[in-house]
Amino acid sequence: MDERRRRVLEVATRLFTEHGVHAVGMDRLVEETGLAKMSVYRVFPTKDDLVGAYLQELAVQILDLVDRDIARAATPADALHAVLDGVAADLRRPGFRGCPFGNAAAEFDDPDHAARRTAREYRQALLDRLDATARRLDPVEGRRLARRLAALVDGAYLSTAHLGPDGPGAEAVDLAHELVDAVAASARG
Prior knowledge:
Strand content: under 5%
Helix content: over 70%
Keywords: DNA-binding, Transcription, Transcription regulation
Order of helices and strands: HHHHHHHHH
GO molecular function, one term: DNA binding
Number of helices: 9
Radius of gyration: 18 Å
Structural class: mainly alpha
Domain HTH tetR-type: 2-62
InterPro entries: Homeodomain-like_sf, HTH_TetR, Tet_transcr_reg_TetR-rel_C_sf, TetR_C
Protein name: TetR/AcrR family transcriptional regulator
């Protein structure tokens, strides 16, 4: 990745996470990068381009972590538990303000805006990974399990953003673990 692009995305990630996408103007972003305004605008001609790239980069990073957790696991149940453990750890990270995809997407009305489109694509990609893994666990109940896990994860992020890591979001992750165990036990029969 080009050094300027990396620097702008690094600063944008910090600022967008701390303050939200709309609250951060390009002038502030340029100032905090230490780059010339024209250098930033050559890399990202518009703020919408920057928001889309920020979320795309974040999606790649998160999905890579999910893929690694799934690949390292001995069983499909272990893989799903590892993903859920990653969610639980993320909910407790310092400065947690909710799902960055949901937060950014909520700031734009246009369903075709890069933020909303990238949020949809990310959620679909995560659901696809949960679905493939859950179907390996149980070909009959896997799809239903994956959809339930996705709903619980989304709920955990939203709840934790408002009520903290010891609120209902933690219970949602615990419930997701219990669902995995129940389907695994049923599949063993």
